[in-house]
TrEMBL record:
This is OmpA family protein. It comes from Shimia litoralis. It is found in: Cell outer membrane. One of its GO terms (cellular component) is cell outer membrane. Keywords: Cell outer membrane, Membrane. SUPFAM superfamilies: OmpA-like (SSF103088). The keyword Transmembrane helix does not apply. It comes from the Bacteria. The keyword Membrane applies. Residues 55-171 form the OmpA-like domain.
Amino acid sequence: MKKTIAASALIALSACSFDNYREAGASIDRGTFGIATVNNTQIHSGEKQYRIDLANRFADEVTSTVTFGFDSAQLDDQARTVLRQQADWIRQFPEVRFRVYGHTDAVGSSNYNYALGKRRANAVVAYLSRQGIGRDRLEAVVSLGKTQPLIVSQGRERKNRRTVTEVSGFVERHPTVLDGKYAAIIYRDYVQSAEVKTTLSGIASAGSESE
């Protein structure tokens, strides 16, 4: 009798554990956990750090988000202006891929909003493609539906009805990236940044002389 009770308790405890507990970090895992070897290789080659730097630079220099009307995947004039800026930036880095995430507000079912987020992401990808960005560089179109709101609200919040464009990786077999030629990419950016600094320095000098 005691063995039966103990066995039943163990089964109940196991079921409870599986139902109520998840692996640490599961809520933020986007499919990259458990790839330590790949992560280490990318860090040592410089690929991952450069990708992170580019992602931060993209977010700093370009508006990465466009918003939509309620229950709509149509791009308005403001959205098209932002996407043209994104395309101008993306064209500077032919070896880099980008991912577009679609989002919605909380109104409507999860299934409907997932599809709506996908339509919004598709609209952005289509527009970027018309600006001369190859589809092989728009790595994936992802819908997060209403799962990641910027503003917690059950109503029609426009800021939640958005897409976000992010750096996601490098184009396979691109001649700049092949054989680990990341130094060439970094050197190109170094020269460009030096030219900008020189220009700013010249402006500052001219200002001080006039004073």
